[in-house]
Amino acid sequence: MPAILIVVLVAVAFLLLRKRGEAATIGDVQPGRDWSQNLSSPMPGDESLLDQIVQGVIHAESRGRQTDANGQTLRSKAGALGIMQLLPSTAAQLGVDPNDAAQNVAGGTTYLQQLYGKYGNWFDTLAAYNWGPGNVDRALATNSGYPDSVNSYAAGIINTLQV
């Protein structure tokens, strides 16, 4: 999928969310990195933090593709669909069609905001997006940590941010 299409899809998602007047804020996301600035990123915004997070998730989840080589909606082994790899149950809860690229991005963006509202930091938010909030809740409650693959996923996206 051309990069311009991804930008357009993200812009559509942000416009949809702007109508709701929602905003995203940043919390402490990773030990060892200086996040002492009181950063906030109203949504939408050119190169906002949330925009960068969404772009990072899109890249990590699908490499920017909504469909496979046969034109079918991209599907993971776990059954997640589309450019932001939404599970059908998550898409249904969000009221979006994961087979429609714009709705997939809008749903994924909303889901990230919901997770951020729950966890208050981007590292745990991205871990929950990747591994599931139930797994993250159990790991936090038992102080057992995340699997290496989940740590790599979250850190990989966070380390690309330009803040």
In words, what does this structure look like?
- With 163 residues, this protein is mainly alpha-helical.
- It has one domain: Lysozyme (Orthogonal Bundle).
- Helix content is 53%, strand content 2%.
- It has helices at residues 3-18, 49-62, 88-94, 101-119, 122-131, 133-142, 148-158, and strands at 24-25, 40-41.
- A two-stranded antiparallel ribbon has the order 1-2.
- The radius of gyration is 15 Å and the shape is globular.
- Mean pLDDT is 79; it is low at 3-47.
Short structural summary:
This protein is mainly α and 163 residues long. The protein has seven helices and two strands; from the N terminus they run H-E-E-H-H-H-H-H-H.
Q: On the 0-100 scale, what is the average pLDDT?
A: 79
Q: Output the strand order for the largest sheet.
A: 1-2
Largest sheet: 2 strands, antiparallel
Structural class: mainly alpha
Q: Count helical runs.
A: 7
Distance between the termini: 27 Å
Helical residues, percent:
40-55%
What would CATH call the architecture?
Orthogonal Bundle
How many domains, in number, for the residues? 1
Query: Which word captures the global form?
Result: globular
Low-confidence stretches: 3-47
Please provide the count of β strands. Answer: 2
Under CATH at level 1, the class stands as Mainly Alpha
Order of helices and strands: HEEHHHHHH
Q: What does the radius of gyration come to?
A: 15 Å
Find the CATH topology: Lysozyme
Please indicate the percent range of residues in DSSP E strands (runs of 2 or more): under 5%
